[in-house]
């Protein structure tokens, strides 16, 4: 049987990025797809990509690092890769068969040949929207869950502050904090997002940080008793304003610092001596270290979603042509909720 | 019996301090001593001060704080207070009697009436130098012990870096780290101090940070595999240089940030994103939270000292007239080892 050639639209990195990324740093090209049938003897699988996730850490992979970074650099001319939801078209691996729904690392393209299918996971809750496996049931969900419970060690009644609170991770942290019995306030970059936080995600309060000229004063107003837990997504000036407003023995989960990702010289944070005087713990974490927790998380989160105890807002753009703009939109706050790309609606 | 009046030399705060402190911010005056006999019915004790401790945190107490700081501000015109070693002259308290040797909070003066003698501790190892209770058996010792074991959670083989390493706290941290089986390097501000670290305290290596134009490069040279534990005494540029040189899951015990204490606007620290990517834990602590651990610590440390397993270097100035210069000398690195004042040799 002769292999038919199929065309494969894909997003490649055009050049390494410095500073703020632009659509021109990527290119949408059409190439030849991989073989639609796995060659005999190979354990690879071929997948059709349904949804791909846009995540802030991809920016780091677009930089050329002299000293290797915590994730591998993308290579100019090659397809971008990240987590996605896929359907298996052809499989040489005993654990997968054509028609299986899976999620894991794939290419920003229509079809991908995956050589290490052990890295893929089955979709255990296909009754929920499949796209959730790029978000609330995928990496952002596990990030929120591990970061909040393992790093923040929340107690009922704790005062919790979340930055980038309406985003892929933040909206989940806030809802988990409410379920835990915390008092939760989030900041976000538009009134629409603030409204979502208050009306849809059940935050106790929320504010638009772009309208607050004095962030320290805002935090004092919103947290007259101080902050027990800060879930840090933003870094820089936000962290600096939070530090003096922490309570004794407060905890800062350092999840990300998106305000710094496009800066050649990161901002200085001045208020670190409060870590001593207030006996704060600031701890960084990466979701990749919590894989062994995934199954427990998936079951718990799927149950919350089915019971309506957690609501998830997605920002879906359609088609790979829209993917570069969606990715860079993370850094201007264009996304409302979890940003993802529907590659194929099938 | 008529009370005799005795003169009492004392060091008072002359005015609140901004910026770098100077001797002129304090004044050595002679006042009338408290009664040498405790009035009937009072539970106070009167002590004669033998040794008083000079500690960096006293600088914070010389600032006028609008919002209360973590320790009370000193009051202009009033005597400075801090930890010292004293002999009881007269006691109205059932737990103390004349002749007892004690340590605790006292005045920077010859004689002090202490209204809450419950705050004082007996000297349990008078066979060791009494002055040790301002240092290795006092607050600096407990700071090193609690900070190193409780916050750093060291393991054999860990790579440990200590700043202000020859000081009151640092020299003990380094020796405890060696006892634990760690590889230990310290930084200090003179060749004499570096020499002490290497020859007397048994550090594996040490360097003079004032001679290193590029601290990042120095750390890369001294820690080619990176740092597991950073015992932070200095803050600012030192912390910034340490962060990229930490190893995965490294721990930073935020003990103090002396380079920042005299600055109106603290320096910015730029490399905090490494807390995320290297999954670091940075945790502040105050020795005052570890009082309940003191007894265990005292016995363990006294044994180390008696066995010669820990050596302690002190910098003793004689007489209260020399106290203001000794205190401000902490901020220029004048002290070699633990700075203290011998008020009376008796
Ligand atoms: N540690 C981990 O393993 C891990 C895993 C996933 C994500 N993360 C981190 O978690 C954070 C949130 O990620 P996410 O996936 O949930 O993204 P997201 O919040 O859905 O999208 C990014 C959001 O960040 C905000 N933002 C962008 N630039 C900003 C700036 N300069 N200052 C302040 N806010 C800015 C924008 O929201 P506003 O409109 O509200 O400003 C934007 O919508 C990121 O820092 C990411 O790197 C970490
Ligand atoms: N958390 C707590 O409960 C607690 C308790 C006690 C002490 N501490 C802190 O621990 C640290 C050490 O205290 P210590 O009592 O052991 O004092 P110390 O080290 O005996 O004396 C201070 C030393 O700091 C160094 N130093 C001064 N200014 C500096 C600057 N601008 N940059 C770099 N180094 C500078 C000098 O040493 P070099 O010549 O080596 O520069 C000086 O000798 C301080 O930050 C202190 O606040 C905290």
- Counting DSSP H or I runs of 4 or more residues, the number of helices of chain A is 9
| Oligomeric state, counting identical vs distinct chains | homodimer
Q: Whole-number average pLDDT of chain A?
A: 96
Overall tally of domains of chain A: 2
Q: What fold name goes in the CATH topology slot of the largest domain in chain A?
A: Quinone Oxidoreductase, Chain A, domain 1
Summarize the structure.
Chain A is α/β, with parallel strands linked by helices. Chain A folds into two domains: 5-135 and 313-342, Quinone Oxidoreductase, Chain A, domain 1 (Alpha-Beta Complex), CATH 3.90.180.10; 139-288, Rossmann fold, CATH 3.40.50.720.
Note down, in words, how this protein is organized.
- 2 copies of one chain form a homodimer.
- Chain A is an alpha/beta fold.
- Chain A folds into 2 domains: 161 residues, Alpha-Beta Complex (Quinone Oxidoreductase, Chain A, domain 1), CATH 3.90.180; 150 residues, Rossmann fold.
- Chain A is 22% helix and 26% strand.
- In chain A, the strands form 3 sheets. In chain A, strands 3, 4, 5, 6, 7, 14 and 15 form a 7-stranded mixed β-sheet that branches. Chain A has a 6-stranded parallel β-sheet with strand order 10-9-8-11-12-13.
- The longest helix of chain A is centred in the middle third of the chain and has 14 residues.
- The radius of gyration of chain A is 21 Å and the shape is globular.
- The mean pLDDT of chain A is 96.
- The interface between A and B is medium-sized, with 32 and 32 residues.
- One NADP nicotinamide-adenine-dinucleotide phosphate binds next to helix 2 and strand 15 of chain A.
């Amino acid at each position: 049987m002769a292999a038919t050639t199929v065309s494969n639209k894909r997003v490649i990195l055009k050049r390494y990025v410095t500073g703020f990324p632009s659509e021109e740093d990527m290119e949408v090209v059409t190439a030849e797809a991989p073989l639609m049938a796995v060659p005999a003897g190979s354990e690879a699988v071929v997948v059709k990509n349904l949804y791909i996730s846009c995540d802030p850490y991809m920016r780091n992979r677009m930089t050329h690092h002299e000293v290797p970074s915590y994730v591998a650099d993308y290579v100019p001319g090659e397809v971008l890769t990240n987590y996605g939801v896929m359907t298996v078209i052809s499989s040489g691996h005993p654990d997968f068969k054509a028609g299986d729904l899976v999620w894991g690392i794939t290419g920003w393209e229509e079809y991908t040949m995956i050589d290490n299918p052990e890295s893929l996971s089955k979709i255990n809750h296909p009754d929920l929207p499949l796209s959730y496996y790029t978000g609330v049931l995928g990496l952002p969900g596990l990030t929120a869950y591990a970061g909040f419970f393992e790093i923040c060690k929340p107690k009922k009644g704790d005062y919790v502050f979340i930055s980038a609170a309406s985003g892929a991770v933040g909206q989940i942290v806030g809802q988990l904090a409410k379920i835990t019995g915390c008092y939760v306030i989030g900041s976000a970059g538009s009134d629409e997002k603030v409204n979502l936080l208050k009306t849809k995600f059940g935050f106790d309060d929320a504010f638009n940080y772009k309208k607050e000229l004095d962030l320290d004063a805002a935090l004092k107003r919103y947290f007259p008793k101080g902050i027990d837990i800060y879930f840090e997504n933003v870094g820089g000036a936000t962290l600096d304003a939070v530090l003096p407003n922490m309570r004794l023995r407060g905890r800062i989960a350092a999840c990300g610092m998106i305000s710094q990702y496009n800066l050649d010289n990161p901002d200085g944070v001045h208020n670190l001596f409060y870590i001593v005087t207030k006996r704060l713990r600031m701890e960084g974490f990466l979701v990749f270290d919590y894989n062994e927790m995934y199954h427990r998380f998936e079951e718990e989160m799927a149950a919350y979603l089915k019971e309506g105890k957690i609501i998830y807002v997605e920002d879906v753009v359609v088609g790979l042509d829209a993917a570069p703009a969606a990715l860079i939109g993370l850094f201007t706050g264009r996304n409302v909720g979890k940003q993802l790309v529907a590659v194929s609606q099938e």
